[in-house]
Amino acid sequence: MAYLDLRATTLDQVHVAHAHDFHQLILATCGVTELAVEGREERVTASRGCLIPTASRHEYEGDGRNRTLVLDIPLQSLSSLRNADSIARMFERPRFFTIPPQLHQLAGSLMLQLEQCPALHSEIAALLLRAIYLHFESEPLAADLDYPLAHRPCERLDLARLDTWIDRHLADEIRVEQLAALCALSVGHFHSRFRQVMGVTPQAYVQQRRLDHARTLVCHSDLSLGHIASLVGFRDQGSFSRAYRRRFDAAPSVARRDA
């Protein structure tokens, strides 16, 4: 297998400017990093990633709260990769690209796997790179890369801010009105824009984050299932267990036993 260096990190509030002799992929599962490549500035968030070709001068500064996947691809490894020519074309120039919900969820799962099994970083890296390649194959690159910044539908939705706020209030009732206010949008406009960008309603997205956090607690803590249910906003253990089973195809008790 080609050597690929994948790591999960938090980019601090420190300004860094450099270039390197390998290609690099940057994805965030949460938080924000200000990134400029060859004079083009954008934010790397849960909804925007970046491809940095070798020798491209770039500058970045994180918010200190992000969780970021950084994949280094040495040039000598390219020839041994599956679809090597297409991957090389992906890195012909710096690219910022939109991350759809499915890819965001995969990135989160892979980050968890990477943190649990760091020895498998090369295999996980190959899977992540394959997912990015398939995303670019299914979505025309030019339509994404040349989309004017002011007209990108996701730019009015600060997903990193929304995620942070949701995660701080998982035990509480979360209303669409509150989320819309964070984006300075009317409830109707926010609901339609959110569904357009994320592919699910705001309520469904909140439910997904509740359950994703619950899975971490189920598998990596000794808290009772009833306590976990209350921490992520369910009124009782029964409704929590039913929702957990629908999302993960296994009851939380079974997931804990098999963890």
Folded structure, characterized:
This protein has 259 residues and is of the alpha+beta class. It folds into 2 domains: 5-147, Jelly Rolls (Sandwich), CATH 2.60.120.280; 159-258, Arc Repressor Mutant, subunit A, CATH 1.10.10.60. The protein contains 12 helices and 9 strands. The protein has helices spanning 75-78, 84-90, 101-116, 121-138, 141-145, 159-168, 176-182, 187-198, 202-220, 225-231, 237-248, 252-258; strands at 5-9, 16-18, 22-30, 33-37, 40-44, 48-52, 58-62, 67-74, 95-98. The strands form 2 sheets. It has a 5-stranded antiparallel beta sheet with strand order 1-8-3-6-9. A hairpin with a 2-residue loop joins strand 4 (33-37) and strand 5. The longest helix has 19 residues, at 202-220. The model is unreliable at 141-153 (pLDDT under 50).
Précis, in short:
With 259 residues, the protein is α+β, with helices and mostly antiparallel strands. The protein has helices spanning 75-78, 84-90, 101-116, 121-138, 141-145, 159-168, 176-182, 187-198, 202-220, 225-231, 237-248, 252-258, and strands at 5-9, 16-18, 22-30, 33-37, 40-44, 48-52, 58-62, 67-74, 95-98.
